[in-house]
Design brief:
alpha/beta
Length: 285
């Protein structure tokens, strides 16, 4: 992500996961970047929750827009909270939605509540719990959307990428519900291929959206993977991906199968290296 224009200086806060910074966007009223350990975690526009700054978040928003008629409320679970960017977007674009955010870092939740207030976001609750425990406590077939967007600084927790976890998330979804995951990877995408294969092994229908350069394994970045028991809006999302502000490519069907070829689903207990971005990705030396 390109750094936005800054205001007077960063606010630094100690949280359970290390050090969090809040940077005001000097170019946009109401805009804030939340960083943890120097890694951008969320961009929140308090004046306009429909504004999505990060490219991967724009792609996730496109999926949310396409999976149900415009304005129709959704029952959603978000694994990973940070600044609650996508929950704010859903609440603004789909009034009467009911959403729960599962976030294990209580200090981070307190910071967000104080500095990036969520009290006025209708239908939103935050539970201080880890993703596995939080999802396991949810009832069967209760939700339309489960979003997995949890990172420990720049790395996806391995226990939230395995087939066992995705199966539990699928249990929570209604028959036409959608599982949506943010996966980060780099050179040759070995982890992303396994993560996509995992989701495709659980759901009959799956797709992947990403920047063409990231999809070619040429640079580190985010890929969005969606799965459902029912057909996904592939044609609409292909058009949105190709014609949006963020130009992206969509893989489904045979193309997705080729992308995942030879990649085994991730499973609990495996010792799998989780990709970490090169320092220069976030301007670190």
């Amino acid at each position: 992500m390109a750094r936005k224009g800054r205001g007077p200086g960063p606010e630094t806060h100690t949280i359970a996961g290390g050090e969090a910074e809040l940077l005001r966007d000097a170019d946009r009223d109401g805009g804030w970047v939340l960083l943890v350990g120097g890694v951008p975690q969320s961009y929140v526009d308090l004046s306009d929750p429909t504004y999505l700054d990060f490219e991967y978040m724009q792609l996730m928003g496109a999926v949310v827009d396409a999976i149900a008629p415009a304005g129709e409320p959704l029952d959603a679970v978000h694994v990973g909270g940070a600044g609650c960017t996508l929950p704010r977007y859903v609440a603004a674009t789909r009034p009467r939605s009911r959403q729960v955010v599962l976030e294990p870092d209580g200090e981070l939740v307190r910071l967000v509540r104080e500095r990036l207030p969520v009290k006025g976001v209708p239908g939103l609750r935050i539970r201080i719990t880890d993703g596995r425990t939080g999802v396991a406590a949810l009832p069967d077939a209760a939700d339309d959307l489960v979003v997995m967007d949890a990172f420990a600084e720049a790395s996806m927790p391995l226990d939230l990428a395995t087939r066992e976890f995705v199966l539990d998330a699928a249990r929570v979804l209604r028959p036409g519900g959608v599982y949506l995951a943010n996966v980060a990877d780099g050179f040759r995408l070995p982890f992303a291929r396994r993560a996509a294969a995992t989701i495709a092994s659980v759901f009959r229908h799956a797709l992947l959206i990403g920047d063409p350069g990231v999809l070619r394994g040429r640079r580190f970045g985010n890929l969005i993977v969606a799965g459902s028991r029912e057909p996904l809006p592939v044609a609409e999302l292909t058009r949105r991906a190709a014609g949006g502000i963020t130009r992206a490519r969509l893989l489904a069907g045979g193309e997705l199968a080729a992308f995942c070829s030879g990649a085994a689903p991730l499973r609990d207990g495996e010792d799998v290296p989780v990709p970490v971005p090169p320092p220069q990705v976030f301007g670190k030396s």
